[in-house]
Design a protein that fits this description.
The structure holds 2 protein chains of 2 kinds.
Chain A (H helix, E strand, L loop, with lengths): L1 H20 L10 E4 L2 H7 L10 E4 L1 H6 L5 H8 L3 E4 L6 E4 L8 E5 L2 E2 L20 E6 L3 H4 L6 E6 L6 E12 L3 E12 L2 E12 L4 E2 L8 E2 L5 E15 L2 E15 L12 E16 L3 E18 L4 E19 L4 E16 L6 E16 L2 E12 L2 E2 L3 E11 L2 E12 L3 H5 L11 E15 L3 E22 L6 E24 L2 E16 L20 E11 L2 E10 L2 E2 L4 E2 L2 E10 L6 E8 L18 E14 L1 E4 L2
Parallel strand pairs in A: 1-36, 5-8
Antiparallel strand pairs in A: 2-7, 3-4, 5-6, 7-8, 9-10, 9-35, 10-11, 11-14, 12-13, 14-15, 15-16, 16-17, 17-18, 18-19, 19-20, 20-21, 21-22, 21-23, 23-24, 24-25, 25-26, 26-27, 27-28, 28-29, 29-30, 30-33, 31-32, 33-34, 34-35
Chain B lengths: L1 H12 L3 E2 L3 E3 L11 E2 L7 E4 L2 E8 L4 E8 L27 E5 L4 E5 L6 E9 L2 H9 L17 E10 L2 E2 L4 E7 L9 E2 L4 E4 L5 E2 L1 E8 L2 E2 L2 E2 L4 E10 L14 E4 L6 E5 L8 E7 L4 E5 L3 E3 L6 E9 L2 E9 L1
Antiparallel strand pairs in B: 1-20, 2-19, 3-6, 4-5, 5-6, 5-8, 6-7, 7-19, 8-16, 9-14, 9-15, 9-19, 10-11, 10-12, 10-16, 12-13, 17-18, 20-21, 21-24, 22-23, 22-25, 25-26
Classes of the chains: A mainly beta, B mainly beta.
């Protein structure tokens, strides 16, 4: 037995070493047939697919065909999330269902990624290349994902893809504004042990021309260059047909220049982000029970420099997470998932007096009952943050299949967001007496699906309402000359989400149409003096309307798509930002051998002049062309789990 | 037109006759080179001659508002790390030390108890480097004045009012630290030199209130950095009966307007050394003298300020050269 274990560890080490030296490939779909027992599938996904929730799942096929290369672009084009982008390669944050940037959790293989200092993540630093699947869970998911999942949760997942053999993919692209990238991935294994290495190198000058005002001559965007390199190393080891161990290492270094605003003469500011994420995951699948343990260490450094003002501002954080999970099929109709997690975050910035630390422990339990046409789920979470209990968090979801083609959904949940370390410790202003934001939200809607051999149609209508109290806002107290975070706001968000997905197969062609429209009303329910906010006013940078559609055609070796997003006007901090509409298109040709593809994509095809953030110009028409080569030498394997 | 203006100025300044004045120039702070004193300690205020300058320092956060004292001369560095330098470089009239104010809502300048109720004749004002470059070039939060086209009617305004007997006056003196409201953009300016601001119209005061306003305002308030610098504050007691001003000296300057010479007279010329320095309104020093008769034939036409010091008395007299 010992020899077998040693042998296995040697194989892991070899796999790591090989993967480390192999650069120049990318993932391919493995020819793997996994036969999982039903108990595991349904029990483990209570948190991933909660009943009654509105979830948009963007799988690897879509990721391979979309024009988006980063999470920010993806969410902007394919979902109702509003992306607050400062420009190509610049900071991009989200607003989902009228929430703030800190109200969207980002979860990587089950563990939260967001910065404990800011409570948010820069979505422009999430290359889709490093993920196999992504999903956006709309609505309050704090019961499942903890603090911050108020507006929604963005999930990135990597999949094992057990294979015997090797797959490799290399992609290179060239685009406007001196944009160049190449990526490579290799995955190889012997059926039990799989190593995968993904490497991404990208750079762009982003020196696009723009016209600051319609009647003024064009200028060129200055100091906007981007350079980044990313590596994801994965090792999956099927210790036993029922037992799996995986290790993932995500390293990313990004250097960005910070361009000036339209009302700034010049900028020499730069920002360097260094990201290290390590995760180990052990999983044991029994006949009715799945045991999992996850451990992770995330470390990020951010170095902001501005030589013009002699500013050097380094900051860093480290997060250690340990999580144990048990999922069990209690009966044919009843599934239970329980998770205990502990999270320790430390961070240091110039503006902190000392290193800040936050300890959080939480217990999560989900119970799902499925019977006939009904499915109901209850999630609860108890969290202790720095010896203070957060309010018990409950989520209830219900689905009812009224007809074979019609499903009714409803959910009610409590969500919360803990103060960030900046909220607590930033000097001046940090307020250690802050309470968590919390509130209830309810949602309901219907899903209508029809399907035939040639066509499918899905229509989703969801409506929601959410009130968050103790909303943390940086404001001035009476007689205080600096801003400090206070629980002074209350925000009421409500809206409507409409989605249409249709597919038609006709004469060797496959047409797909995805469209969506979001109406979002997110209003301050209490007036605030500074910042100047009136009761009933829409939140800053939350559009009332967002629409998007994408039409794609696949015929033989040719795939083409056209997409558009329409974003309503928003209230900026200094002035309103006008509505805009962007059209993009993509064409891809792949030979029948499937050993590669070439593609060309066009963004802002109508050359619209627009801004997302006030005073930050956005690029006009620009393109990206690329080539992808794939290599596959695999043999089918079959893993039958007990 | 020019003659008309000079005629008006003549009547405005023809009978310059000032009682003894005292000046706060902060030079007594004896700061080491390149020092920014933004913590007044337990007193909560700096004192300089007839002035008390409240200071609110938070030791936990090392932050401050109100007044600070500085002798920094960095006129090149942009951004908030250079909040401590006057853009003119050093103090007014060639001095080393000056006061910096960070204005939250308003900043108060109190007259010391022994001169409460006196008239603040005037003071020299300029921008600090942070505010100056923020308006000139813009920054991540504030706009470049003039906007994209240069035509935005931007301004950065210092408004000064007085308190007397606990009452805030309705009258005020406005001084534009930057003014881009001119139709002709060539006239747009941001104050870069020490500039004399005449406050005598406010009359007797116990304290002065300074507020800043800007055309660049967002949801979080004024985007323009809320700073200004001050030096050479001239205070004229209203009553000669005060003990500390028994030696009341009356200065007279004539002719005004002048062409070739001016004469300064006082009651004590023969007893005490007279020091006279003549500046233009931008603070440029043109002449110094210790004689009452001064040849000004080389001065270009315009308005000038004569700073007269004798014994413990001080006066600032404006005059016009034709």
């Amino acid at each position: 037995m010992i020899i077998r274990w040693c042998s296995a560890w040697v194989r892991v080490a070899l796999a790591c070493g090989l993967c480390g030296f192999q650069s120049g490939f990318l993932l391919g779909q493995a020819d793997t047939l996994l036969i999982f027992p039903r108990a595991e599938i349904s029990a483990a996904r209570l948190r991933l697919e909660p009943s009654g929730a509105h979830i948009v799942r963007l799988d690897s096929a879509l990721l391979a065909s979309t024009s988006a290369r980063h999470a920010a672009d993806l969410l902007a084009v394919h979902t109702g999330a509003y992306i607050k982008s400062y420009g190509l390669g610049s900071l991009a944050t989200t607003s989902v269902r009228g929430g703030s940037a800190a109200h969207t959790s980002v979860v990587w293989n089950g563990l939260p990624l967001h910065s404990p200092m800011l409570g948010q993540l820069d979505f422009s630093l999430l290359p889709l290349f490093l993920a196999d699947e992504v999903a956006l869970q709309y609505g309050g998911r704090s019961a499942a994902w903890g603090s911050g999942a108020v507006g929604g949760a963005f999930l990135l997942d990597n999949r094992p893809h057990y294979l015997r053999g090797i797959t490799a993919r290399v992609e290179a692209g060239l685009g406007s504004f001196d944009r160049r990238y190449w990526s490579a991935a290799v995955r190889y294994g012997n059926g039990e042990l799989v190593g995968a290495t993904r490497l991404l190198v990208e750079q762009a000058q982003n020196d696009f021309p723009f016209r600051p005002l319609p009647n003024l001559p064009k200028q060129v965007r200055q100091n906007a260059a981007l350079r980044q390199i990313g590596l994801l190393q994965e090792v999956y080891w099927k210790i036993h047909p029922a037992q799996e161990l995986s290790v993932r290492l995500w390293r990313q270094a990004v250097f960005r220049e910070i361009p000036p605003t339209l009302l700034q003469a010049r900028s020499e500011a730069t920002q360097a982000d260094t990201i290290t994420r390590v995760m180990a995951h052990w999983k044991l699948t029994g006949r009715k029970t799945v045991w999992q343990v996850r451990a992770a260490y995330f470390a990020e450094q951010l170095y902001y420099r501005d030589p013009l003002i002699l500013l050097e501002s380094p900051s860093r954080f480290r997060v250690a997470i340990i999580e144990a999970e048990v999922a069990r099929a209690l009966s044919r109709d009843l599934r239970l998932q329980t998770i205990f997690t502990h999270n320790r975050a430390t961070s240091l910035a110039k503006a902190y007096a000392t290193e800040a630390c936050q300890d959080r422990s939480a217990a999560y339990t989900a119970l799902r009952w499925t019977h006939s046409r009904w499915q109901a789920q209850a999630d609860t979470r108890l969290e202790l943050a720095d010896s203070r209990w957060t309010p018990p968090t409950l989520a209830l979801g219900l689905e009812y299949n009224a007809l074979p083609s019609l499903q009714l959904r409803a959910a009610a949940m409590r969500s919360y967001r803990l103060p960030t370390l900046n909220d607590l410790y930033w000097q001046p202003g940090g307020n250690p007496d802050l309470h968590p934001e919390s509130g209830w939200s309810t949602e309901g809607g219907l899903v209508w699906r029809i399907r035939s051999e040639q066509a499918s149609l899905q229509w989703i209508s969801m409506a929601y309402t959410r009130r968050i109290r103790n909303w943390i806002m940086w404001a001035r107290k009476d007689g205080q000359f600096f801003f400090s975070p206070q629980n002074i706001a209350e925000v009421w968000s409500r809206g409507l989400e409409l989605r249409l997905d249709a597919a038609l197969r006709y004469a060797r062609s496959e047409w797909c149409l995805s469209a969506g429209f979001d109406y979002t009303r997110s209003t301050n329910e209490r007036a605030v003096a500074s910042p100047r906010i009136e009761t009933g006013s829409q939140l800053f940078y939350v559009p009332r309307y967002k629409g998007f559609w994408r039409l794609s055609l696949q015929r033989s070796s040719l795939a083409m798509s056209i997409h558009q997003q329409l974003v309503g006007a928003v209230v900026g901090l200094n002035e309103p930002v006008a509505a805009f509409a962007l059209v993009g298109a993509r064409a891809q040709w792949a030979p029948a051998s499937k050993h590669g593809a070439i593609f060309l994509q066009l963004e802002n095809a109508l050359n619209a002049s627009y801004q997302i953030i006030e005073r930050q110009p956005m690029p006009g028409r620009h393109f990206l062309a690329g080539i992808r080569l794939e290599l596959r030498h695999t043999k089918p394997i079959e893993i039958a789990l007990p | 037109m020019r003659q008309f203006c000079l005629f008006v100025l003549y009547f405005a300044f023809a009978s310059v006759q000032l009682a003894a004045q005292t000046v706060a120039d902060f030079e007594e702070f004896n700061l080491p080179p390149n020092t920014f004193l933004n913590n007044a300690g337990p007193a909560g205020a700096f004192s300089s001659g007839p002035l008390v300058l409240p200071n609110n320092y938070n030791p936990q956060w090392m932050s401050w508002d109100g007044w600070a004292i500085s002798n920094r001369r960095d006129t090149l560095t942009q951004g908030f790390l250079n909040e401590s330098s006057a853009i003119a470089g050093g103090g007014a009239l060639g001095s080393a030390i000056y006061a910096v104010s960070y204005v939250f809502n308003s900043t108060i300048l109190r007259l010391a108890p022994h001169v409460a109720g006196s008239i603040v004749q005037g003071m020299y004002i300029t921008n600090n480097a942070y505010a100056y470059y923020s308006m000139k070039n813009g920054d991540a939060f504030a706009k470049k004045f003039g906007g994209i086209t240069g035509n935005d009617p931007d301004f950065f305004l210092l408004t000064i009012k007085k308190y007397l007997g606990g009452q805030l006056s309705a009258d005020s003196v406005n001084f534009y630290l930057a003014d881009y409201r001119f139709t002709n953009n060539a006239l747009d300016y941001i104050i870069k030199d020490w500039t004399y601001v005449d406050l005598s119209s406010l009359g007797p005061a116990d304290s002065l209130q300074f507020t800043l306003s800007s055309s660049d305002v967002g949801a979080f308030g004024m985007n323009t950095p809320a700073y200004f610098c001050m030096d050479h504050v001239v205070v004229q007691p209203v009553s000669a009966s005060r003990d500390s001003y028994k030696e009341l000296i009356t200065f007279r300057l004539f002719p005004n307007p002048a062409t070739d010479y001016i004469v300064l007279s006082s009651d004590y010329f023969s007893q005490y050394t007279l020091q006279i320095a003549i500046y233009d309104l931008k603070g440029k020093l043109w002449l110094t003298s210790n004689q009452p008769y001064i040849d000004i034939s080389m001065l270009p036409s315009g308005m000038y300020v004569a700073h007269c010091r004798q014994a413990n008395s001080y006066a600032v007299l404006k005059f016009v050269v034709r």
